[in-house]
Amino acid sequence: MSAQLLGRGSDPTTRVNVRIKHSGLSGRKICASSGYGILRPCAAADEDEAESEVVMELQEIESDLVRLVKEILDPLFVLFGFFQLGDAQYERIIIAFVEGRVV
What we know:
Blueprint: H1 2-6, E1 15-23, E2 29-30, E3 43-44, E4 49-57, H2 60-63, H3 65-78, H4 87-98
Antiparallel strand pairs: 1-4, 2-3
Helix pairs in contact: 3-4
């Protein structure tokens, strides 16, 4: 992970703040990009922006990756008809991504 590489040689308890802003969303739709059917029918965003912020220690990135990704994406998904992924779906997608696979 990029944040882990940036923190290499740093104290693992160093806290980092990550803020992500998604904009230009109003009227856009979220749909499944693969045949796994994890997304319900396409839903258009009601608002234009979503912003997330997570604060973590460097040592938490790998062990808490699923929780961190959820914290970043949940506010984005709310704009699309309160769409939610379950923990098992997040885990499956994130583990596959870390292994270099897109599902």
